[in-house]
Amino acid sequence: MPYFSSRDIAAIAMCATLWGILNSIFAPIFFSISHLPFFCDMIGFSVLVLAAWWIRKIGAITIIGIIATLINFAIAPNPYHFLGFTAASIFFDLTTAASGYGRTFRRKTYTAASMMTISIFSASLAGFIIGTFFMTGSAFNAMGGVLGWAGLHAIGGVIGGAIGTSLVTGLDARKITAKNSTMQQPQPNFIRDSE
Predict the structure, then answer these.
(1) Alpha-carbon span 136 to 147, nearest angstrom
(2) Structural domain boundaries of the chain?
(3) What single string gives the DSSP state of each residue in the chain?
(4) The pTM of the whole model exceeds 0.70
(5) How far apart are alpha carbons 88 and 45 in whole angstroms?
(6) Computed from CA positions of residues 68, 73, 77, 81, in that sequence, does the dihedral angle turn out positive or negative?
């Protein structure tokens, strides 16, 4: 039996495409207006939290990050900074797996605490890598250099983690669960009564 089911692969493809396309189209617009990197993190980590909850297998988040990177390299005019998010998705994958999927998504409070923490640290890692290898100039130095850039990305990780956690807890509250790698909705009462 393969490690990833066809539903896992479909979820990976949807999440990676969502992140890659939205980031390559809208993040440059947001950055040119505000000169802040929040939008990349907001999209990325909200998608990664949702994907971790949905798929719950190590390696899935890494694959999503790699596919999103390839999409950015195909579409965006200057995509090299996205390599920081590739590394962040690997870190996100490993730390989520290490904390345990069952434990992470068992309670709302633990989901919020763990996913927010992992999102913040992953976004900081992305900001640190981007600041170290891909950013230069007086505006970059005015924002605090590499550590300032990592801090700005951490703020984006807070926003993305909050959005992703809200999505996951909202789906759980409506009894839409991720069991056996599928998003299953409860059957309406009239279907259950007829069986």
Answers:
(1) 13
(2) 6-194
(3) --SS-HHHHHHHHHHHHHHHHHHHHHHHHHHHHH---HHHHHHHHHHHHHHHHHH--TTHHHHHHHHHHHHHHHH-SS-GGGHHHHHHHHHHHHHHHHH-HHHHTTSHHHHHHHHHHHHHHHHHHHHHHHHHHT--SHHHHHTTHHHHHHHHHHHHHHHHHHHHHHHHHHHHHTT-EEETTEEEPPPPHHHHHH-
(4) yes
(5) 10
(6) positive
pLDDT in tens, the chain (195 residues): 689 999 999 999 999 999 999 999 998 899 889 888 889 999 999 999 999 999 999 999 999 999 999 999 999 888 898 999 999 999 999 999 999 998 888 888 999 999 999 999 999 999 999 888 887 776 567 777 888 889 999 999 999 999 999 999 999 888 887 764 445 545 555 554 444
The first and second tokens of residue 32, run together, are 């040119």
Length of the chain: 195
Task: Report CA torsion sign: 3, 70, 64, 9.
Answer: negative
State which amino acid sits at residue 16.
A
